[in-house]
Write a structure and sequence with these properties.
Order of helices and strands: HHHHHHEHEEEEEEHEEHHHH
Distance between the termini: 32 Å
Number of helices: 12
Strand content: 5-15%
Radius of gyration: 21 Å
Oligomer: single chain
Helix content: 40-55%
Low-confidence stretches: 325-336
Protein backbone atom coordinates (compact mmCIF):
# COMPACT_ATOMS: atom_id res chain seq x y z
CA UNK A 1 0.00 0.00 0.00
CA UNK A 2 1.34 3.40 -1.02
CA UNK A 3 0.04 5.94 1.52
CA UNK A 4 1.02 8.94 -0.59
CA UNK A 5 -1.64 10.86 -2.48
CA UNK A 6 -1.28 11.39 -6.19
CA UNK A 7 -0.96 14.82 -7.74
CA UNK A 8 -4.51 14.48 -9.03
CA UNK A 9 -5.84 13.70 -5.55
CA UNK A 10 -3.98 16.63 -4.04
CA UNK A 11 -5.39 18.89 -6.73
CA UNK A 12 -8.94 17.75 -6.01
CA UNK A 13 -8.50 18.62 -2.35
CA UNK A 14 -6.82 21.97 -3.01
CA UNK A 15 -9.34 23.13 -5.59
CA UNK A 16 -12.34 22.06 -3.55
CA UNK A 17 -11.00 23.68 -0.37
CA UNK A 18 -10.36 26.93 -2.21
CA UNK A 19 -13.82 26.99 -3.79
CA UNK A 20 -15.66 26.14 -0.56
CA UNK A 21 -13.61 28.70 1.34
CA UNK A 22 -15.00 31.38 -0.95
CA UNK A 23 -18.55 30.07 -1.37
CA UNK A 24 -19.39 28.37 1.93
CA UNK A 25 -18.45 30.60 4.84
CA UNK A 26 -20.51 30.78 8.06
CA UNK A 27 -22.95 33.35 6.66
CA UNK A 28 -23.47 31.46 3.40
CA UNK A 29 -23.91 28.23 5.35
CA UNK A 30 -26.66 29.64 7.56
CA UNK A 31 -28.41 31.20 4.57
CA UNK A 32 -28.35 27.87 2.72
CA UNK A 33 -29.78 25.76 5.55
CA UNK A 34 -32.65 28.24 5.96
CA UNK A 35 -33.84 27.71 2.39
CA UNK A 36 -36.64 25.17 1.70
CA UNK A 37 -34.18 22.79 0.04
CA UNK A 38 -31.60 23.12 2.81
CA UNK A 39 -28.74 23.74 0.41
CA UNK A 40 -27.56 26.26 -2.16
CA UNK A 41 -28.45 25.02 -5.69
CA UNK A 42 -26.02 27.52 -7.22
CA UNK A 43 -23.14 26.06 -5.21
CA UNK A 44 -24.13 22.55 -6.25
CA UNK A 45 -24.18 23.62 -9.89
CA UNK A 46 -20.71 25.13 -9.51
CA UNK A 47 -19.36 21.97 -7.87
CA UNK A 48 -20.79 19.92 -10.72
CA UNK A 49 -19.70 22.12 -13.62
CA UNK A 50 -16.23 23.09 -12.39
CA UNK A 51 -15.18 19.97 -10.45
CA UNK A 52 -17.51 17.22 -11.65
CA UNK A 53 -18.18 16.38 -8.02
CA UNK A 54 -21.48 14.46 -8.43
CA UNK A 55 -19.85 12.12 -10.96
CA UNK A 56 -16.45 11.90 -9.31
CA UNK A 57 -16.71 8.13 -8.73
CA UNK A 58 -18.86 7.33 -11.77
CA UNK A 59 -17.37 5.78 -14.92
CA UNK A 60 -16.50 8.05 -17.80
CA UNK A 61 -18.94 6.01 -19.92
CA UNK A 62 -21.77 7.72 -18.07
CA UNK A 63 -20.25 11.18 -18.00
CA UNK A 64 -18.38 10.72 -14.73
CA UNK A 65 -14.77 11.47 -13.86
CA UNK A 66 -13.85 7.82 -13.40
CA UNK A 67 -12.20 8.12 -9.97
CA UNK A 68 -12.50 5.74 -7.03
CA UNK A 69 -13.90 5.79 -3.51
CA UNK A 70 -10.61 7.32 -2.36
CA UNK A 71 -11.15 10.52 -4.34
CA UNK A 72 -14.80 10.63 -3.28
CA UNK A 73 -13.75 10.34 0.37
CA UNK A 74 -11.21 13.15 -0.04
CA UNK A 75 -13.96 15.33 -1.51
CA UNK A 76 -16.18 14.49 1.46
CA UNK A 77 -13.38 15.48 3.83
CA UNK A 78 -13.31 18.94 2.29
CA UNK A 79 -17.09 19.38 2.33
CA UNK A 80 -17.01 18.22 5.96
CA UNK A 81 -14.56 20.99 6.87
CA UNK A 82 -17.13 23.64 6.03
CA UNK A 83 -20.22 21.51 6.80
CA UNK A 84 -21.24 22.33 3.23
CA UNK A 85 -24.95 21.51 2.86
CA UNK A 86 -24.93 19.85 -0.54
CA UNK A 87 -26.66 16.73 -1.96
CA UNK A 88 -23.24 15.05 -2.28
CA UNK A 89 -23.82 12.38 0.38
CA UNK A 90 -27.37 11.52 -0.66
CA UNK A 91 -26.74 11.63 -4.40
CA UNK A 92 -23.12 10.61 -5.07
CA UNK A 93 -22.39 8.41 -2.04
CA UNK A 94 -25.69 6.62 -1.37
CA UNK A 95 -27.88 6.67 -4.48
CA UNK A 96 -25.57 6.71 -7.52
CA UNK A 97 -23.59 3.54 -6.59
CA UNK A 98 -26.87 1.59 -6.32
CA UNK A 99 -27.98 2.79 -9.75
CA UNK A 100 -24.60 1.77 -11.14
CA UNK A 101 -24.59 -1.64 -9.43
CA UNK A 102 -28.19 -2.74 -9.97
CA UNK A 103 -29.62 -0.62 -12.79
CA UNK A 104 -30.40 -1.96 -16.22
CA UNK A 105 -28.45 -0.63 -19.18
CA UNK A 106 -31.35 1.66 -20.02
CA UNK A 107 -31.65 2.97 -16.46
CA UNK A 108 -27.94 3.67 -16.22
CA UNK A 109 -27.85 5.42 -19.58
CA UNK A 110 -30.82 7.60 -18.64
CA UNK A 111 -29.98 8.51 -15.05
CA UNK A 112 -26.25 8.40 -14.41
CA UNK A 113 -25.20 11.07 -16.96
CA UNK A 114 -27.78 13.43 -15.45
CA UNK A 115 -26.45 12.73 -11.96
CA UNK A 116 -22.86 13.25 -13.12
CA UNK A 117 -23.76 16.62 -14.63
CA UNK A 118 -25.50 17.78 -11.45
CA UNK A 119 -28.85 18.07 -13.22
CA UNK A 120 -30.40 15.24 -11.20
CA UNK A 121 -30.26 14.76 -7.44
CA UNK A 122 -31.23 11.48 -5.80
CA UNK A 123 -31.85 10.08 -2.33
CA UNK A 124 -31.98 6.66 -0.72
CA UNK A 125 -35.17 6.01 1.27
CA UNK A 126 -34.86 3.23 3.87
CA UNK A 127 -37.91 2.65 6.10
CA UNK A 128 -37.58 3.41 9.78
CA UNK A 129 -34.43 4.57 11.59
CA UNK A 130 -32.53 1.68 10.04
CA UNK A 131 -30.14 3.21 7.53
CA UNK A 132 -27.07 1.91 9.39
CA UNK A 133 -28.57 -1.60 9.57
CA UNK A 134 -29.53 -1.55 5.90
CA UNK A 135 -25.94 -0.63 5.02
CA UNK A 136 -24.69 -3.46 7.28
CA UNK A 137 -22.78 -1.02 9.49
CA UNK A 138 -24.38 -1.84 12.84
CA UNK A 139 -25.85 -5.26 12.17
CA UNK A 140 -26.54 -7.97 9.64
CA UNK A 141 -30.13 -8.72 8.70
CA UNK A 142 -30.25 -11.33 5.91
CA UNK A 143 -34.03 -11.09 5.63
CA UNK A 144 -34.31 -7.32 5.59
CA UNK A 145 -36.73 -7.10 8.51
CA UNK A 146 -35.79 -3.41 8.85
CA UNK A 147 -37.83 -2.71 5.71
CA UNK A 148 -41.09 -3.76 7.35
CA UNK A 149 -43.33 -6.31 5.66
CA UNK A 150 -46.94 -7.41 5.84
CA UNK A 151 -48.62 -5.31 8.49
CA UNK A 152 -45.34 -4.32 10.14
CA UNK A 153 -45.22 -0.98 8.38
CA UNK A 154 -42.35 0.19 6.23
CA UNK A 155 -42.88 0.35 2.48
CA UNK A 156 -44.69 -2.31 0.46
CA UNK A 157 -44.60 -2.90 -3.28
CA UNK A 158 -47.11 -4.73 -5.44
CA UNK A 159 -47.39 -5.48 -9.09
CA UNK A 160 -49.81 -3.37 -11.06
CA UNK A 161 -50.81 -3.13 -14.67
CA UNK A 162 -47.76 -1.93 -16.54
CA UNK A 163 -45.40 -1.83 -13.57
CA UNK A 164 -45.25 -1.52 -9.80
CA UNK A 165 -46.98 0.46 -7.09
CA UNK A 166 -45.50 1.31 -3.69
CA UNK A 167 -47.15 2.49 -0.51
CA UNK A 168 -45.88 3.36 2.95
CA UNK A 169 -43.90 6.02 4.77
CA UNK A 170 -40.22 6.78 5.38
CA UNK A 171 -39.45 9.36 8.05
CA UNK A 172 -35.72 10.05 7.75
CA UNK A 173 -34.55 10.46 4.18
CA UNK A 174 -31.43 12.54 3.60
CA UNK A 175 -32.44 15.25 1.13
CA UNK A 176 -35.67 13.31 0.62
CA UNK A 177 -37.76 16.49 0.55
CA UNK A 178 -35.88 17.95 -2.42
CA UNK A 179 -34.33 15.07 -4.38
CA UNK A 180 -35.66 14.67 -7.89
CA UNK A 181 -35.33 10.88 -7.76
CA UNK A 182 -35.94 8.55 -4.83
CA UNK A 183 -34.41 5.08 -4.54
CA UNK A 184 -36.89 3.37 -2.23
CA UNK A 185 -36.30 0.08 -0.43
CA UNK A 186 -39.56 -1.86 -0.24
CA UNK A 187 -40.88 -5.32 0.56
CA UNK A 188 -42.40 -7.26 -2.32
CA UNK A 189 -43.85 -10.72 -2.74
CA UNK A 190 -46.21 -10.82 0.22
CA UNK A 191 -45.55 -12.61 3.50
CA UNK A 192 -44.59 -16.03 2.12
CA UNK A 193 -42.09 -14.83 -0.50
CA UNK A 194 -41.17 -11.50 0.98
CA UNK A 195 -37.94 -9.91 -0.26
CA UNK A 196 -36.43 -6.44 -0.35
CA UNK A 197 -36.17 -4.73 -3.72
CA UNK A 198 -35.25 -1.20 -4.74
CA UNK A 199 -37.61 1.01 -6.71
CA UNK A 200 -37.23 4.32 -8.50
CA UNK A 201 -39.81 6.97 -7.68
CA UNK A 202 -39.77 10.26 -9.58
CA UNK A 203 -39.98 13.40 -7.52
CA UNK A 204 -43.18 14.50 -9.28
CA UNK A 205 -44.93 11.12 -9.14
CA UNK A 206 -48.63 11.11 -8.30
CA UNK A 207 -49.31 9.94 -4.76
CA UNK A 208 -45.92 11.09 -3.45
CA UNK A 209 -46.06 13.51 -0.55
CA UNK A 210 -42.97 14.81 1.22
CA UNK A 211 -42.01 17.48 3.69
CA UNK A 212 -38.78 18.64 5.26
CA UNK A 213 -38.27 17.47 8.82
CA UNK A 214 -36.79 19.46 11.68
CA UNK A 215 -33.46 17.74 12.25
CA UNK A 216 -30.89 18.09 15.01
CA UNK A 217 -28.27 18.86 12.36
CA UNK A 218 -29.69 21.52 10.06
CA UNK A 219 -26.72 21.14 7.70
CA UNK A 220 -27.86 17.56 7.03
CA UNK A 221 -31.47 18.18 5.84
CA UNK A 222 -33.93 15.30 6.04
CA UNK A 223 -37.40 14.75 4.66
CA UNK A 224 -40.38 12.55 5.40
CA UNK A 225 -41.91 10.89 2.37
CA UNK A 226 -45.33 9.29 2.10
CA UNK A 227 -46.18 6.95 -0.75
CA UNK A 228 -49.85 6.48 -1.49
CA UNK A 229 -50.16 3.86 -4.20
CA UNK A 230 -47.38 5.63 -6.05
CA UNK A 231 -46.11 4.49 -9.43
CA UNK A 232 -42.58 3.10 -9.22
CA UNK A 233 -40.02 1.48 -11.46
CA UNK A 234 -38.10 -1.57 -10.34
CA UNK A 235 -34.37 -0.91 -10.17
CA UNK A 236 -32.63 -3.62 -12.13
CA UNK A 237 -33.74 -7.23 -12.24
CA UNK A 238 -36.41 -8.69 -9.96
CA UNK A 239 -34.31 -11.79 -9.38
CA UNK A 240 -31.46 -9.75 -7.85
CA UNK A 241 -32.06 -8.82 -4.22
CA UNK A 242 -31.12 -5.43 -2.87
CA UNK A 243 -29.57 -6.53 0.43
CA UNK A 244 -26.11 -7.56 -0.88
CA UNK A 245 -25.82 -4.33 -2.87
CA UNK A 246 -26.75 -2.25 0.18
CA UNK A 247 -24.19 -4.12 2.30
CA UNK A 248 -21.45 -3.48 -0.28
CA UNK A 249 -22.46 0.16 -0.41
CA UNK A 250 -21.94 0.36 3.34
CA UNK A 251 -18.17 0.06 3.00
CA UNK A 252 -17.87 3.06 0.70
CA UNK A 253 -20.47 5.08 2.58
CA UNK A 254 -18.69 4.52 5.90
CA UNK A 255 -15.34 5.57 4.44
CA UNK A 256 -16.84 8.76 3.00
CA UNK A 257 -18.68 9.56 6.22
CA UNK A 258 -15.52 8.95 8.24
CA UNK A 259 -13.54 11.29 5.99
CA UNK A 260 -16.28 13.91 6.23
CA UNK A 261 -16.28 13.69 10.04
CA UNK A 262 -12.48 13.95 10.10
CA UNK A 263 -12.63 17.08 7.95
CA UNK A 264 -15.13 18.65 10.34
CA UNK A 265 -13.09 17.63 13.39
CA UNK A 266 -9.90 19.04 11.93
CA UNK A 267 -11.55 22.34 11.10
CA UNK A 268 -13.18 22.92 14.50
CA UNK A 269 -9.90 22.01 16.18
CA UNK A 270 -8.03 24.53 14.00
CA UNK A 271 -10.51 27.25 14.93
CA UNK A 272 -10.17 26.41 18.62
CA UNK A 273 -6.37 26.51 18.54
CA UNK A 274 -6.51 29.84 16.76
CA UNK A 275 -8.94 31.26 19.34
CA UNK A 276 -7.04 30.18 22.48
CA UNK A 277 -3.93 31.74 21.00
CA UNK A 278 -5.72 35.10 20.86
CA UNK A 279 -7.94 35.07 23.95
CA UNK A 280 -6.13 36.34 27.05
CA UNK A 281 -6.73 35.56 30.69
CA UNK A 282 -4.60 36.69 33.65
CA UNK A 283 -2.49 38.65 31.20
CA UNK A 284 -1.51 35.74 28.95
CA UNK A 285 -3.07 33.74 26.09
CA UNK A 286 -5.35 30.93 27.26
CA UNK A 287 -3.53 28.56 24.95
CA UNK A 288 -0.33 29.00 26.94
CA UNK A 289 -1.75 27.20 29.98
CA UNK A 290 -0.53 23.62 30.25
CA UNK A 291 -3.97 22.16 30.94
CA UNK A 292 -5.32 23.68 27.73
CA UNK A 293 -2.32 22.46 25.75
CA UNK A 294 -2.82 18.91 27.00
CA UNK A 295 -6.50 18.88 26.10
CA UNK A 296 -5.87 20.18 22.61
CA UNK A 297 -2.94 17.81 22.12
CA UNK A 298 -5.11 14.83 23.07
CA UNK A 299 -7.82 15.98 20.65
CA UNK A 300 -5.23 16.47 17.90
CA UNK A 301 -3.87 12.94 18.34
CA UNK A 302 -7.40 11.55 18.21
CA UNK A 303 -8.21 13.46 15.03
CA UNK A 304 -5.00 12.37 13.32
CA UNK A 305 -5.61 8.73 14.23
CA UNK A 306 -9.15 9.00 12.87
CA UNK A 307 -7.83 10.57 9.67
CA UNK A 308 -5.44 7.66 9.12
CA UNK A 309 -8.29 5.18 9.70
CA UNK A 310 -10.55 7.05 7.28
CA UNK A 311 -7.89 7.09 4.56
CA UNK A 312 -7.29 3.38 5.01
CA UNK A 313 -11.03 2.66 4.85
CA UNK A 314 -11.28 4.64 1.60
CA UNK A 315 -8.31 2.77 0.15
CA UNK A 316 -9.82 -0.55 1.25
CA UNK A 317 -13.19 0.29 -0.33
CA UNK A 318 -11.52 1.26 -3.61
CA UNK A 319 -9.36 -1.87 -3.54
CA UNK A 320 -12.34 -4.09 -2.82
CA UNK A 321 -14.29 -2.55 -5.69
CA UNK A 322 -11.38 -3.12 -8.06
CA UNK A 323 -10.93 -6.69 -6.83
CA UNK A 324 -14.61 -7.40 -7.27
CA UNK A 325 -14.49 -6.14 -10.84
CA UNK A 326 -11.59 -8.45 -11.70
CA UNK A 327 -12.68 -11.37 -9.48
CA UNK A 328 -9.35 -11.60 -7.68
CA UNK A 329 -10.47 -10.68 -4.15
CA UNK A 330 -9.11 -12.96 -1.46
CA UNK A 331 -10.98 -14.09 1.63
CA UNK A 332 -8.46 -12.51 3.99
CA UNK A 333 -8.57 -9.12 2.28
CA UNK A 334 -12.35 -9.11 2.18
CA UNK A 335 -12.64 -9.88 5.89
CA UNK A 336 -10.19 -7.10 6.71
CA UNK A 337 -11.89 -4.58 4.47
CA UNK A 338 -15.37 -5.44 5.77
CA UNK A 339 -14.45 -4.02 9.17
CA UNK A 340 -12.38 -1.04 8.01
CA UNK A 341 -15.28 1.27 7.16
CA UNK A 342 -17.28 0.75 10.34
CA UNK A 343 -14.24 1.07 12.60
CA UNK A 344 -13.05 4.20 10.80
CA UNK A 345 -16.49 5.75 11.08
CA UNK A 346 -16.65 4.98 14.81
CA UNK A 347 -13.24 6.53 15.38
CA UNK A 348 -14.05 9.59 13.28
CA UNK A 349 -17.36 10.24 15.03
CA UNK A 350 -15.64 10.05 18.40
CA UNK A 351 -12.91 12.42 17.23
CA UNK A 352 -15.46 14.91 15.92
CA UNK A 353 -17.48 14.78 19.11
CA UNK A 354 -14.33 15.33 21.19
CA UNK A 355 -13.01 18.19 19.04
CA UNK A 356 -16.40 19.91 18.91
CA UNK A 357 -16.91 19.61 22.66
CA UNK A 358 -13.45 21.04 23.36
CA UNK A 359 -14.17 23.83 20.91
CA UNK A 360 -17.39 24.80 22.65
CA UNK A 361 -15.83 24.82 26.10
CA UNK A 362 -12.55 26.53 25.21
CA UNK A 363 -14.37 29.27 23.33
CA UNK A 364 -15.88 30.24 26.67
CA UNK A 365 -19.31 31.84 26.88
CA UNK A 366 -19.54 32.60 23.16
CA UNK A 367 -19.05 28.92 22.34
CA UNK A 368 -22.33 28.02 24.04
CA UNK A 369 -24.43 30.42 21.99
CA UNK A 370 -26.38 29.53 18.85
CA UNK A 371 -24.65 32.39 17.05
CA UNK A 372 -21.28 30.66 17.15
CA UNK A 373 -20.47 27.99 14.58
CA UNK A 374 -18.94 25.57 17.12
CA UNK A 375 -22.35 24.17 17.96
CA UNK A 376 -22.93 23.29 14.29
CA UNK A 377 -19.99 20.88 14.44
CA UNK A 378 -21.23 19.36 17.68
CA UNK A 379 -24.67 18.85 16.13
CA UNK A 380 -23.06 17.22 13.10
CA UNK A 381 -21.30 14.74 15.42
CA UNK A 382 -24.48 13.99 17.37
CA UNK A 383 -26.67 13.83 14.27
CA UNK A 384 -24.37 11.47 12.39
CA UNK A 385 -24.15 9.15 15.39
CA UNK A 386 -27.95 9.00 15.53
CA UNK A 387 -28.15 8.23 11.80
CA UNK A 388 -25.18 5.89 11.34
CA UNK A 389 -24.24 4.73 14.83
CA UNK A 390 -24.04 4.64 17.72
CA UNK A 391 -20.29 4.21 18.02
CA UNK A 392 -20.46 1.16 20.29
CA UNK A 393 -22.70 -0.67 17.81
CA UNK A 394 -20.39 0.17 14.91
CA UNK A 395 -17.50 -1.38 16.82
CA UNK A 396 -19.53 -4.36 18.05
CA UNK A 397 -20.61 -5.25 14.53
CA UNK A 398 -17.06 -4.89 13.21
CA UNK A 399 -15.88 -7.23 15.97
CA UNK A 400 -18.57 -9.76 15.08
CA UNK A 401 -17.67 -9.58 11.39
CA UNK A 402 -14.00 -10.18 12.22
CA UNK A 403 -14.89 -13.00 14.68
CA UNK A 404 -12.88 -11.25 17.37
CA UNK A 405 -14.66 -12.86 20.31
CA UNK A 406 -15.09 -16.33 18.89
CA UNK A 407 -13.07 -19.10 20.47
CA UNK A 408 -10.51 -20.85 18.32
CA UNK A 409 -11.94 -23.80 16.48
CA UNK A 410 -15.58 -22.68 16.75
Amino acid sequence: MDARFTDEQDEIRRTLRELLGKRCGPEELRAAVDTPAGHDPALWTTLAEQLGLPGLALPETYGGVGCTATELALACEETGRTLAPTPLLATAVLAAPLLLALGTDAQRAELLPRIASGALTAALAVPGPALATALALTGHDPRGAWAGGGRAGGVQARRAEGGWRVYGQVDQVLDGHSAQLLVVAAHAGGFARSRVLLFLVRGDAAGLSRVRQTALDATRPQGRIQLRDTEAELLGDETVGALPALARLGDTAAACLAAEAVGAAGRVLERTVEYVGQREQFGRPVGSFQAVKHRLADAYVQVQAARSAAYYAAWAAATEAAAGATAIATTTATAREETAGGLALAQALEALRRAAAEGIQLHGGIGFTWEHEAHLYFKRAAGDELLFGPVHRLRAHAADAAHVFEEAGT
